[in-house]
């Protein structure tokens, strides 16, 4: 992320700000899609950790870069998944992208 979401490309700090303030977002995207994988059962993940990745992606990364709509999906449990399950997940990825960006299917 640090190589792509970087100052001067995705955000900038305002004049006089030493990097301690809230950056001005430079991304002109209307939506970002994030796909995560996990080896933890979703119920345990939520119970033990909450959803820190949701906060990071929506508020600390894309939100500060000017992207207001962030869609995130986690696929789990990867380590015990079957090939059929992984194919189903890939189909869900494709459908999510097409739902958000219909021109991607043309």
H/E series: EEEHHEH
In DSSP terms (H or I, runs of 4 or more residues), the helix count works out at 3
Task: Count every beta strand, where a strand is a DSSP E run of 2 or more residues.
Answer: 4
- Estimate percent helicity: 25-40%
Radius of gyration, CA atoms, in whole angstroms: 17 Å
Strand pairing plus helix content: what structural class?
A: alpha+beta
Mean of residue pLDDT values: 90
User: What spatial order of strands do you see in the largest sheet?
Assistant: 1-2
Shape: globular
The low-confidence parts are: none
Strand residue percentage = 15-25%
Describe the model.
This protein has 106 residues and is an alpha+beta fold. Helix content is 35%, strand content 19%. It is built from three helices and four strands. It has a two-stranded antiparallel sheet. The chain has a two-stranded parallel sheet with strand order 3-4. The chain is globular, with a radius of gyration of 17 Å.
């Amino acid at each position: 992320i640090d190589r792509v979401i970087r100052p001067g490309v995705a955000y900038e700090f305002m004049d006089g700000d030493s990097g301690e303030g809230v950056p001005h977002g430079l991304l002109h995207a209307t939506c970002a899609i994030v796909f995560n994988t996990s080896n933890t059962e979703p119920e345990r993940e939520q119970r033990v950790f909450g959803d820190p990745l949701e906060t990071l992606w929506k508020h600390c990364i894309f939100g500060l870069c000017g992207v207001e709509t962030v869609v995130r999906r986690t696929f789990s449990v990867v380590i015990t998944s079957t090939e059929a399950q992984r194919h189903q997940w890939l189909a869900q990825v494709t459908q999510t992208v097409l739902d958000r960006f219909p021109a991607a299917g043309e």
